[in-house]
Design goal:
110 residues; mainly alpha; 2 domains; two-stranded antiparallel sheet; 3 helices; 40% helix; elongated; disordered C terminus
């Protein structure tokens, strides 16, 4: 999730802004990313994208990848439901439900 990747037909892996440029070229919209063919512009665009990729879940208010992966692991193990990371109830009747600190992204406000 830190960097976009694509695999070309020859097996070569490309990353970053080059992926977007190639995708847009493939659908006839290459002009959108054509400036990134300039190495200096591509380097700057990759720097901006790296910041966006790091904080996109917080910026967009979505759950952090850690939370999503924990939920999927719990579902695969047959624990909890699709909407909960909580485990079985403890002896006090409360569900055990821990979310890593900062893992909720921008959704910490309730």
């Amino acid at each position: 999730m830190e960097k976009i990747h694509a695999i070309e037909s020859d097996g070569r892996i490309i990353t970053g802004i080059e992926v977007f440029r190639r995708l847009y070229e493939a659908v006839g919209l290459g002009f959108v990313y054509s400036l990134t063919k300039n190495p200096a512009v591509e380097k700057a665009a990759n720097a901006v994208y790296d910041v966006w990729a790091k904080y996109r879940t917080q910026i967009t208010g979505r759950e952090a990848m850690e939370v999503i992966l924990q939920r999927r692991a719990a579902e695969a193990a047959g624990k909890g439901d699709a909407g909960s990371l909580c485990g079985e109830e403890g002896t006090d009747g409360a569900a055990a439900c821990e979310v890593p600190v900062g893992a909720r992204g921008g959704a910490d406000k309730q």
